Amino acid sequence: MTAPLSLTDRPQLRRGVRAATDPLSDETVLLFPEGVLILNETAAVVVRQCDGCLSVAEVVQAVGEVYDGVAVEDVMSLLRDLITQNLLVANRG
Amino acid sequence: MDRPLGLLAELTYKCPLHCPYCSNPLTVPQAAELTLDEWYRVLIEARQLGVLQLHLTGGEPLARPDLTPLVARARDLGFYVSLVTSGVGLDLQRARELASAGLDHVQLSIQDADRISADEVAGARVFNRKLAAARAVTALELPLTVNVVLHRGNIGRIGPIADLAAELGADRLELAHTQYYGWGLLNRSALLPTRDQVATAEQAVARARATHDDTLEILYVVADYYEAYPKPCMHGWGRRHIVIAPDGRALPCPAAAQIAGLGIDNVRERSLSAIWHHSPTFTRFRGYDWMHEPCRSCPLKETDFGGCRCQAFQLTGDAARADPACQLSPDHHLVEAALQVAGPLHQPWHPRSNPSVS
After folding, report:
1. In a mutagenesis test of the A interface, which of B52, B106, B172, B209 is the best target, namely the one with the most A β-carbons within 10 Å?
2. Residue B102: left if φ>0, alpha if ψ -120 to 50, beta else—which one?
3. Domains assigned to chain A
4. What number of C-beta contacts closer than 8 Å exist between A and B?
5. Is B143 in Cβ contact with A15 (below 8 Å)?
6. Taken in order B43, B46, B52, B53, is the CA torsion positive or negative?
7. What share of chain B is helix, strand, coil (3-state, %, to 5)?
8. How far apart are the C-alpha atoms of A93 and A62, rounded to whole Å?
9. CB B94 within 8 A of CB B132
10. Is the pTM of this model over 0.90?
11. Cα–Cα distance list, B77 to A13, A44, B44, B72, B205 (Å)
């Protein structure tokens, strides 16, 4: 099942999901009621931009300032995956 | 990553409810509960081990008058803090205090969508107070999970239960079949649903998911007695979780104290790090070396970890045997025999009695 997502949506972490830094590894983790998701470095940069204000297009642009050659489809694929896991909400834009 | 991620802090065995499926032990030690300062030390040690999630549970954790400072300290240390509660005692003021202290999430138990049945199972007239507690939580915009333990008496009302959870503004609904430990095992013959009831329930869950798709996440914890393979209990023994009992005993799962000969350590006497790495309680069934056949050569052993050690102990007397819930277990007939008494009829049960704890 693929979650719908458009470039004008303004994604943010779902209520009850919190990004934090793992005290042992310094990796970014998502904490939520029944679990923990460890994010890789790129995913962490993407998720930290998802504040409910920036659109997906703006998130892609912001990530592009950190990493060269960021593909829109890669970012959207990650966001869709997090939406499917009920960790992120799209906020229709 | 070989480290504990979750700490279940059983703050007290006291509880205003008498649910017949309670997994607390039938008899509990008369030792004093850990003090607030002792819990602070446990939290610091847990954090050093890498624990990220703290589940405050019991009994009823709201029975501890020092819950708010404990939540505040836990949040300061960086834990994701969940309160697992009956909701009795969670009025708007208490909820506001806990939210201000940084509580991340509330898991509230509701027994049924039908008030009379719910209060009968709870053994107290608490249904309306629970609804008020849920509304206090959502009014403060705290994330709410409604937890409903399924048994033969409420399994036919999954639709109304989901409607109620949605009406209360819950983010998640956890529908969890009874796990047969403690009072649940004692009352098993009164609680077990029939195979038909379970099949109907699965259809009802699918319908409820379709109805509440956008607003309510519905989690369904299967009835392991009716499954082909066992549950991955605690995601493996001594692998991801630590349970601290009210008196400070450190356990790999809430039911483990019953297993004879484990040599249980207490955080009052030993550091949590020493316990996690070296206590025989935690090392006894860690990994795969302890396994006998059919688990030892089973390709699923890394998926289900041989199932539940406590269930093996309860049903066979030997915690190192395969979980009898598994169809490959030579003891599976014990589960099948238990299912012979499953029925739709109402049977009397033993209400959980409240321990007298100092």
Report:
1. B52
2. left
3. 10-84 (3.90.930)
4. 41
5. yes
6. negative
7. 40, 15, 50
8. 18
9. no
10. yes
11. 22, 21, 7, 9, 38
ipTM of the complex: 0.93
- Closest Cβ–Cβ partner in A25, A31, A86 for B53: A31
Average pLDDT, chain A: 93
Is B52 within 8 Å of A36 when comparing Cβ atoms?
A: yes
Terminal-residue alpha carbon distance, chain A: 21
The one-letter code for the residue type at B1 is M
For residues B62 and A37, give the distance between their C-alpha atoms in angstroms, rounded to a whole number. 29
What is the mean pLDDT for each group of 10 consecutive residues in chain B (358 residues)? 90 96 90 97 98 97 98 98 97 98 98 97 97 98 98 96 98 97 94 95 98 92 93 94 97 91 94 96 95 96 95 96 97 95 79 70
Residues B23, B233: contact at Cβ < 8 Å? no
pLDDT in tens, A35-93: 999 999 999 999 999 999 999 999 999 999 999 888 899 999 999 999 999 999 999 87
Are B47 and A16 within 8 A, CB to CB? no
Interface touch A16/B50, C-beta < 8 Å: no
Kindly list the residues from chain B whose CB atom is less than 8 angstroms away from the CB atom of residue A25.
Answer: 1
CB < 8 Å to B143, chain A: 15-16, 33
Q: What is the mean pLDDT of residues A5-20?
A: 96
Tokens of B148: 């409903």
What pLDDT shows up at residue B357?
A: 44
A4 contacts on B by Cβ (under 8 Å): none
Q: Cβ atoms within 10 A of the Cβ of B132, count? A: 14
B85: which residues sit within 8 A by CB, 6+ positions away? B60, B61, B62, B106, B107, B108, B109, B133
- Determine the pLDDT at residue A93: 78
C-alpha distance from A23 to closest chain B C-alpha (Å): 7
Helix (H) or strand (E) holding B165: helix B158-167
The CA radius of gyration of chain A, in Å to the nearest whole number, is 13
Residue in B206, B201, B226 with CA at minimum distance from that of residue B218: B206
Give residue B260's pLDDT: 79
